[in-house]
Specification:
By secondary structure, the chain is of the alpha/beta class. It has 3 domains: about 300 residues, Aldolase class I (TIM Barrel); about 140 residues, Rossmann fold; about 110 residues, 3-Layer(bba) Sandwich (FAD/NAD(P)-binding domain), CATH 3.50.50. Strands 3, 4, 5, 6, 9, 10, 11, 12 and 13 form a 9-stranded parallel β-sheet that branches. A 5-stranded parallel β-sheet has the order 16-15-14-17-28, sandwiched between helices. Strands 19-26-20-21-22 form a 5-stranded parallel β-sheet. Helix 7 runs parallel beside helix 8 and helix 18 packs parallel to helix 19. The protein is globular, with a radius of gyration of 27 Å. The chain starts with 13 loop residues before the first strand and ends with a helix.
Length: about 650
């Protein structure tokens, strides 16, 4: 058993068939959108190498398509083309430089796909349309099933040629194999439908074909869905039986796990901070009791102590840590060396990883501006002549600018007007089930302290103070201020108070009674304050000009669970509606589709509307001839990821 201090299990090696992994931390398969014209890219190699260098025990790549009918999203690796092999070799050589094994996940998405790119019918076990893509697929015949099986074998052999140490078959949340396993999508009456034995037939055929293609010196794993969370879907009892059947044939070296269906219950696969950590551990726990094969557990593991506990309690043999290593590639190395407190904890916000995937953009991270840019953003190089840098504002933008400048060797001081760091993030983290957002502040302030940044609180920075301090350069990160819409009367006037979300979160306003939350942002601001006020006993209605309340919660997979909570808390939702003004009858609104104008008189109105940049200090310093830069909301009010990117960009340029 190797080192790792308090992590007795996490940093012990384990054999997966012919492959020994040095520790139990798995960088599990997940989409990246890094492919270029269907081929693996330099960014793939740089991305996986960074996690290998950071100490991961095993890396499993994103899925590689085994057949031309499978093209559900634009930037997918088309492994059915032999031209992928050079790209594979770049990836595997980069990872192997750090002594880490790497497996390739191969897949056919079946009915969870689109014909938009292929202009071919979608293939599936039965003509059951997926709820997301809404295409009626073609039910594959036995000849086409054989063609799919052959595609898996061909691609598996190609991956071996490309240097991979193992193959993982994705038979879980988005797969034609899952489609066959599930009664909900398999309505066949032939040898591939009906009984569980028949529904499992294609899986056994694929396993046998792949094992024959790769031989015994390459590891082979199967990823199974433990519970689809849909009507007539796969149940845990069925998955246990499938696992036993797979093990009995003696051709598979490990089992991986999953929960949900990627297009029906995705919010449970890539769970946000509203879902408890380790929420899916019941699945690997059940499989591990049923089989002797090593089992991988997944489900929002944020820190190594959680992973160690799951291993120690016997729920799994390995732990998949994806977003934790997206946020901090050195997750494993920091834990192993006794510096777990330095890990940049994932927020489970889903904004730049899952959210960007939903927008067909490359994967990034709200906290780590290098994620997704490893191939084009080299590590910072220390400067020859350090400068005195004054950063004004300790929100995400200012702290990231300070971190980046200090990492380059500059002498950095941060002045924050308030008594605590974090800016608006700390208020956003004060609402129900959003506390983990505050980890970004903890992560950044800890990094500042490690780098020797001088953090000062409780002092307003003025041009006179800047002149007295005489820094070489100033970075202004003064954020934004609430903006009052044209229709709102001045504060203190009118029949009812009209305040900003921030006023409520800061405790400057305490709405009661009948409250209208007016939302023009479509994100967490309105929904969070609505829940907060409902919990305080208010009768809350969210009015929005959008087609749905919290429309951008969809890309972070928070929408479904918000709707459930909103219903339970009695929060009313009015959509397609704008505010036209305030008159003697109250708040005047208009319904977009019909033009219907109505008035209501709430006790309070809370605004979630665009704010304005607080940029006066920047303009004053610029006019005074000071070398000054600005970052974050004082440039333009945006979300936290933009603030971090701004901070990194400006800090790196100093």
């Amino acid at each position: 058993m190797s080192g790792g201090g308090q992590y007795r299990y996490l940093f012990s090696p384990l054999r997966l068939g012919p492959v020994t992994v040095p520790n139990r931390i798995v960088f599990s398969a997940h989409l990246t959108n890094y492919a270029e014209d269907g081929m693996p890219s330099e960014q793939h190699a740089a991305y996986y190498e960074a996690r290998a260098a950071g100490g991961a025990g095993l890396i499993i790549t994103e899925e590689h398509s085994v057949h031309p009918t499978d093209w559900p999203y634009e930037k997918m690796i088309h492994a059915f083309h032999p031209e992928v092999v050079p790209g594979y070799k770049r990836i595997t050589e980069a990872v192997h430089r750090h002594g880490v094994p790497i497996f390739a996940q191969i897949n056919h998405n079946g009915g969870q796909a689109s014909s938009m790119y292929t202009r071919l019918p979608v293939w599936a076990p039965s003509p059951v349309p997926d709820p997301l893509f809404r295409e009626v697929p073609k039910a594959v015949d036995t000849r086409e099933i054989a063609e799919i099986v052959e595609g898996y074998a061909t691609v598996a052999a190609r991956c071996v040629e490309g240097g991979f140490d193992g193959i993982e078959l994705q038979c879980s949340h988005s797969s034609i194999v899952r489609g066959f396993l599930s009664r909900a999508t398999n309505q066949r009456t032939d040898a591939y439908g009906g009984s569980l034995e028949n529904r499992t037939r294609i899986l056994h055929e694929i396993v046998a074909a792949v094992r024959e293609a790769i031989g015994r010196n390459i590891a082979l794993g199967v990823r199974l869905c433990g519970d689809e969370l849909i009507d007539d879907g796969i149940t845990l009892d069925e998955t246990v039986e499938v696992a036993r059947a797979v093990e009995a044939r003696g051709q598979v070296d490990y089992l991986n796990t999953s929960i949900g269906v990627a297009t029906a219950s995705l919010f449970m696969i890539e769970a946000s901070m509203h879902i408890p950590p380790e929420y899916a551990m019941f699945i690997p726990s059940a499989l591990r009791k049923a089989v002797d094969l090593p089992v991988v557990g997944v489900g929002r593991f944020k820190d190594p102590l959680q992973a160690e506990k799951a291993l120690a309690e016997g729920h799994a043999d390995l732990i998949g840590v994806v977003r934790g290593q997206i946020a901090d590639p050195d997750f494993a190395a920091k834990a192993r060396s006794g510096h777990a407190h330095e890990i940049r904890l994932c927020l489970s916000c889903n904004q730049e990883c899952v959210g960007r995937m939903g927008l067909n953009r490359w994967l990034g991270c709200i906290e780590n501006p290098r994620t997704g840019r490893e191939a084009v953003l080299p590590p910072l190089v220390r400067v020859g002549k350090p400068r005195d840098v004054l950063v004004v504002g300790a929100g995400p933008a200012g702290l990231q600018a300070a971190i980046t400048a200090a990492a380059k060797g500059h002498r950095v001081t941060v002045h924050e007007r308030d008594d605590e760091p974090g800016g608006q993030v700390r208020f956003a983290a004060s609402v129900p089930n959003r506390a983990e957002l505050g980890d970004i502040v903890r992560n950044q302030t800890h990094e500042c302290e490690r780098l020797g940044v001088d953090l000062k609180y409780g002092q307003e920075v003025t041009p006179e103070l800047v002149a007295a301090l005489a820094p070489d350069v100033v970075v202004v990160a003064t954020g934004s201020v609430p903006s009052r819409p044209w229709w709102a009367p001045p504060p203190g006037e009118g029949a009812f108070p009209i305040v900003d979300v921030l006023d409520v979160l800061r405790g400057d306003a305490a709405p009661s009674g009948d409250v209208v939350v007016y939302d023009e942002l479509g994100f967490h601001q309105a929904t969070s304050v609505a829940e907060l006020l409902a919990d305080r006993g208010c009768q809350v209605e969210i009015v929005t000009n959008g087609m749905v309340v919290g429309q951008d919660l969809g890309i972070t997979l928070d929408q479904e669970n918000f709707w459930i909570r909103a219903h339970a808390k009695g929060i009313r939702q009015t959509v397609d509606t704008i505010v036209n003004g305030v008159d003697e009858h109250g708040l005047v609104t208009m319904h977009h589709p019909t033009g219907t104008v109505t008035s209501r008189k709430p006790d309070w109105v809370v605004l979630a509307v665009p704010s304005s940049p607080a940029d006066q200090l920047y303009r004053d310093l610029l006019a005074a001839g000071v070398e000054v830069h600005r970052v974050g909301d004082c440039v333009a009010p945006r979300r936290a990821h933009a603030a971090v990117i701004d901070g990194r960009r400006v800090g790196a340029a100093l």
